[in-house]
């Protein structure tokens, strides 16, 4: 084991999480970070384009990705047989953000600007006056063919300036802005660009037969991306890039009991799920004695409804469970789903110290007080009495704290991937998540202790749930 790997073993769960966050500014980077963690624990990569029949075996560890932004990892119990079931922790890799438009080149009032789309339900006012960096993937076409490559501009290259109070006194009463015309980042001044020799403003007409990347995006931006991935700008044919707050994930509070970062929703759940899986397979004899499959599924596109080829509302998990029934009979898939259990892990709302009236008085979760079981009579969450009782039993057996949450009757409820997957697959499910403040802000806050709590619960689920489930008689 290398020195860096050894050092990683001694980091606290929150320190490892902070490292993960700072390496994961986009869903693509989050998946890459998860892959790196899985590789250290000898998980074998699979391809959906190939047969798994002679590859996946009892006691094996595997993962595969789809689109580079969704990842599924699983470990096969030593006593697994088709139909035995899959114990799953599901989460998502995406967060609300600003994505570059297919044609992002804009100018105005002497500035180079970049056109962006709003992705998800962000608190967009929090994106003003922030140092914005850029990350995602570029599509490269060269002698090797067409390929996708990660890219990250870590410098604060973009900025969305607020309007001065002197020019609009009403902003002290209510901050109103137009997402299309006011939520537009600036990259540079036109004068500086002209003097640089790059001249992004030349050939501004994008409606020509020339469909080159520099017709659609500022030359200075394309050249910066090309230099980072080591190709000629003409070899970049497209990209999927999002802006993010350059300020890193860090500890906060006078006792350093908080974690401040963008994308806590839902990269915290993603990290805790992967960490629990890799720790569970290292437990002596734990996997060899298991008769089920332990799985983590991290999906993209939850923030926009999950309806994509790599979202939770796709056939991805159905296809995966089908493929793991090799050697079974015609009903193995249906039996496997009936024997399976899903923990849908997504962040929860901690009670706000300045708006406590927004929570129901008996259901006001606090940070650093344990993971939250989320319940909704309208089925916005997938928790049932039976699934809640089973997870509570697991938590109590391992001295793991938990809290319960229902939304007030006079407020709308959010939702998660849980109801989608539960209804599509017929799998018993529960919704849980760590409590946090400022959800969907560019800068969110959660508790340090809750990182370890979630890891411990998911780890106990992977190691102990198969045995616990045999004591359950509910159909």
From TrEMBL:
CDD domains: M18_DAP (cd05658)
Signal peptide span: none
Pfam families linked to this entry: Peptidase_M18 (PF02127)
Superkingdom of origin organism: Eukaryota
Catalytic activities: Release of an N-terminal aspartate or glutamate from a peptide, with a preference for aspartate
Record-linked InterPro entries: Peptidase_M18 (IPR001948), Peptidase_M18_dom2 (IPR023358)
Root EC class: hydrolase
Cofactor(s) of this protein: Zn(2+)
GO CC terms: cytoplasm
GO molecular function, one term: aminopeptidase activity
Listed GO biological process terms: proteolysis
Entry keyword Glycosyltransferase: no
Keyword list, A-Z: Aminopeptidase, Hydrolase, Metal-binding, Metalloprotease, Protease, Zinc
EC number(s) reported in the record: 3.4.11.21
Family recorded in the similarity comment: Belongs to the peptidase M18 family.
Entry protein name: aspartyl aminopeptidase
Species this chain originates from: Smittium simulii
Species lineage: Eukaryota, Fungi, Fungi incertae sedis, Zoopagomycota, Kickxellomycotina
